[in-house]
Amino acid sequence: MADVEYEHFVDWDKMGELAQSGGPSKLDCRDLGDLKQAARQGLWSKSHRLRAQVYQQLIKAIPCRTVTPDAEVYRDIVGKVVGKRAPATLPLPEFVDGSPVPKLCLNAEGVAAAHKIIACVASQFPDISYCPALPAAVALLLHFSRDEADCFEKICRILACNEPGRRLLDQTFLAYESSCMTFGDLANKYCPSAHRLIVAAASQDVMEVYSDWLRWVFGDLPLAHAARVLDVFLVEGYKVLFRVALALLKFFRRVRSGPPQEAGDIRGEIRAFARGIGSCVSPDKLLEKAFAIRLFSRKEIRLLQLANEKSLQQKGITVKQKRQNVHLAVNPETFSSEIVSAKEMRDIWAWVPERFALCQPHLLFTTAEHGCSLNRFYSHCEGHEPTLLLIRTTDGEVCGAYLSTDWEERRRGGGKLSFFGTGECFVFRLKPEMERYEWVVIRHPELAAAAPPQNPETPEDPNTLPAKEESSDPTDRLSPFLSARHFNLNTRNTSMFMAGSQESIIIGGGDGNALYIDADLNHGRTARCHTFDNQPLCAEAFQIALLEVWGFQDAMAS
């Protein structure tokens, strides 16, 4: 039976039991403990109207920023934001990362309204850089909102929550990615059987599977289940989402019996299971399983999340890499390397500077064809920048370096070994595990401040306007594209990018070299160095089985 007050956006014929108006007509909870119990037991889940009223009270009680957009703001801006475009065709903002508006029993008017609301949210929250859960959250709230403006105000209050220690929706890639890592840690501990299945069956990186964990909950779950999760989430916060996703994973493992299929699309299987969970697991059973898991406290989850955020920051991973077109550069049908697969080369290509992302890899030198000679290495590589160095050791380990500058620069040293290059250089290892090490100054900008050289002998011109005062934040001026001389470095060791002579090539310096390769291209060493603050890239003393150097060929010119 349709609720007239909330009928605008809902296809009531598809609502089933959710359209019923049973249960209590009002909520009587004296404290937070009572409220938690009521939410977990689904006290207001049998009355659409009561649920809407409870949501209104819970969201209104969220502490928010002083200036938080409300319903009146929506009415003022929606016409300007939408313009003459059909609402359903409004593109979703880039920060939702391709997440569509789930229908969740919404009618066509509801889907169009969700697009309008999300567009208005994007205009009012320019600080949001990554929030794939937003479309699902808006779609859910529309069910329990009187109109678009009411839904807009609700989602804005959730996004603008400023209560210390309280977390609702992730709004940056760093926060979201660290939550995926945290979920992976929890899955490994609390769902070991499912975790082993994913590790064995994933054709892609395991973290790619876990990167969907929040989409399982807000996006894939059917409305009856998602609404029950939202009931508890608005009362207890973010940790509920971890619990529900872990419970879903446990149920998936129970259904997915038998030995793992190595080539199976486990990522797609889990999402399909979440969409169809209603056929085998009720909302009550899902929450019962979720709260039966003995999980960390909210404080401990937060500490784990902060540790993962710190790890990502140290690796320089704070924004989502825009590499949708990497597959255009690394074509598996034409790419051929004796060291890495096309997929591994794509992973490396996703690290290179944006302006080279669409260049195609072009083999310049390989010891398999050109022999083990440093002179031939130089003759084939000079005149090309940047270049990518790949090494496979006799132990099967794979590592390498992205080198920003032409090897011909080594000649400027007048026969002496001298370092050159820029802060875009990085080193990496692929096997046995994948890891990239960028210039240490990118991860720790306090080590340097870009400062243009000034001539102290130039007199001050009284008729010249005063120069704009530079920001005290070194990250405002930091650009790894610049060479080391543009920075006030506290030690020269942090700028030893690459060097070459007739005896060796060296990458990274200061208390060791990230890579040292001898003149015969036969033996090498690796160690921690100040330039990249890296771990050894393979066995510290290694023998080279194969070495390749790849250039970057402009796809438009080929």
Automatic annotation (TrEMBL):
Record-linked InterPro entries: Rab-GAP-TBC_dom (IPR000195), Rab-GAP_TBC_sf (IPR035969), TLDc_dom (IPR006571)
Record's compositionally biased regions (Basic and acidic residues): 467-476
Keyword Membrane included in the entry's annotation: yes
Location of the TLDc domain: 338-553
Region named Disordered: 450-477
Its job: May act as a GTPase-activating protein for Rab family protein(s). Involved in neuronal projections development, probably through a negative modulation of ARF6 function. Involved in the regulation of synaptic vesicle trafficking.
Quaternary structure and interacting proteins, as annotated: Interacts with ARF6.
Protein name (record): TBC1 domain family member 24
Organism in which the protein naturally occurs: Atractosteus spatula
Organismal lineage: Eukaryota, Metazoa, Chordata, Craniata, Vertebrata
